[in-house]
Amino acid sequence: MSKGRLLSGMQPTGMLHLGNLEGALANWVKLQDEYEAFFFVANWHALTTMLDRTEEIKRYTRAVATDFLAAGLDPNKCAVFVQSDIKEHAELHLLLSMATPIGWLERVPTFKEKQEQLHLETVSYGLMGYPVLMSSDILIYKANAVPVGQDQLPHLELTREIGRRFNYIFGDIFPECEGLMTEYAAMPGLDGRKMSKSYNNAIYIADTAEETETKVRSMYTDPLKMRKTDPGHPAGCAVYNLLKTYGRADMHEDCEAGRIGCVECKKRLAAFLNDRLAPIRERRMELEQHPEKLDEILAAGAEKARKVARATMVEIRAAMHLD
Fold first, then answer.
1. CA 176 remoteness from chain centre
2. Is this model's pTM higher than 0.85 or not?
3. 77 catalytically annotated
4. Is 197 marked active-site?
């Protein structure tokens, strides 16, 4: 490999929002020039929480792939594909599950969090074994680097442990993968909480300019600013927090000085966001109008990924005497 190899993916559990764009996608667009990069839509992972809504997974898979490309991922620089198109992920998942102690999976913090969040009486193997499938996604490409958020670090450490255990038993095949921490603050939503699909407080990449303006008008602002001339207070103001995340807290200065009211401040934010999203929306519209183009890109990305995955599986089968 002339460059290091990088892999990352997102689950198609809903439409992607500004938090996904600025917290991950924008970083991926930069990294595609620095690595041999593979980016995938993790539709098998989505089954852990959406098994009764598989038709939604199918719909969101195309929407997420469209957002990947609209955000700036270039199929000439990286592979963009759907997880289930590469069956080798599932084969490696099965083999690695034989070498992964259950105790390792029970210690993963996100497993316990999801169990409580979803109020599950029974836990499927798929949910518990989610980190093993994630490890397979990474190890099958022998990825050196994986862009992750803070909450994914335990999964990445488990991937390293599984890779080391496999190497100890069967010989050195998998390299150590390093986490590339995304340097971006959590994106505040319309209500001031972290932007999330589950909170219904998100501005989506697919939203129109008009929808974005409507959502921004609904944002929570300073309750102490009763009149335009009252000084605004940044603390607790969702508009200010979103501007600050973008490094544009200066756009709130007139509000703090009592020179403008909340309505004008929201107009400024909406205009800023629409300028940011305009080229992305243009690319997204083009892909939606020509769905065959998306199909071609995903098929080409899958072919590139499959070539690497198959080569890795040849090594693994030979090491395990399964060839």
1. 22
2. yes
3. no
4. yes
